Amino acid sequence: MIQGINGLDVHVLEAGYEAAGRPLALLLHGFPDLAYGWRHLMPILADAGYHVVAPDQRGFGRTTGWVNAYDTSLAPFSLLNMTRDALALVAALGHRRTAMLVGHDFGSPVAAYCALIRPDVFPSVVLMSAPFPGPPAFAFDTARGEGRAAPATNASRDLAVALAALDPPRVHYQQNLSAREANESMWHPPQGLHAFLRAFFHVKSADWSGNQPHPLKEPSAAEFAAMPTYYVMERGRTMPETVAPFAPSAAEIQACRWLTEAELGVYAREYGRTGFQGALQAYRVFGDPGLNAELRLFSGRTIDVPSLFVGGSGDWGPYAAPGALDAMRSQATTRLFGVEMIEGAGHWIQQEQPARLAEVLLSFMDKAGAAAA
Hints:
Blueprint: E1 2-5, E2 8-10, E3 12-15, E4 24-28, H1 42-47, E5 51-55, H2 79-92, E6 100-104, H3 107-117, E7 125-128, H4 155-164, E8 170-172, H5 173-177, H6 182-187, H7 193-203, H8 221-224, E9 232-234, H9 239-243, H10 250-255, H11 261-274, H12 277-286, H13 289-295, E10 307-312, H14 324-332, E11 336-342, H15 349-352, H16 354-372
Parallel strand pairs: 4-5, 4-6, 6-7, 7-10, 10-11
Antiparallel strand pairs: 1-2, 3-5, 8-9
Helix pairs in contact: 2-3, 7-11
């Protein structure tokens, strides 16, 4: 536990801390993960010479100092404040900068803003599963246009209406998980918390044969409806109800070496203790107009440090926001070293294929170091 981190007491896992002076590798997890999700990768990076640190992010696990309630201000969970969390943690650890910064899922936009805002402290970045399309932008060159600039359409609202009009009616998972009822439905599901988490981790992994991800042509209801129901859910069904039909068999559970029953028990105990509300605040932040307006302070800014995107070949995450990966390539970054899709991995890349991920990360660091020399 590290006290006084931007108002938090932060729980971290560490590897390679025995010798002073090692370069820092900071690993930021997503939803519904924990620092524990990096357990397979951390020893490999430590063996390669890094001081590896994985925190339970604000709202998750054993990190405290955040308000665990639906009816609380979302500002502490904003992307900019979670960027401050990372910056404060680096300083508290006695480092001036990271050598490696990796963000997965919701940790990806946090890592992206770290690199965009403080490239002096975060001189390279690896984003996993969730591409970064850039900060929200102000309308450009409207001053001499005829009349007033047309107001921006509410794309999220329009998509929600279109999904609701499908047969059967559908709802985007981010909208579902932003609802007041989401925490209780996941915390106390009918099948039990352990069984729910097992099904959730399974259905988003390469172990589930139903995952056949591909880029979506456009952000339309018809395109989104082709995604699995854990992404575009049937309206009125909870996430535990959605994933229950796809729960793995006893034989599949026994064969799952990347997430054993004992390891899954760590997740079940932690979320059984805390619930999911702190973790779910991330989805509400994405839909908050004020917090999105705050990000326009960085309108037009790009990630100018060496960057890399890593996805799993069996993960829908890289395509969940149509056009985001292309935008990351063409406009959000200026030194993108590549896009790596790791075979045999779904959403949980660092758990499913840690050895291959480590190879990709270490190769990227070699290339980034050579480019800086």
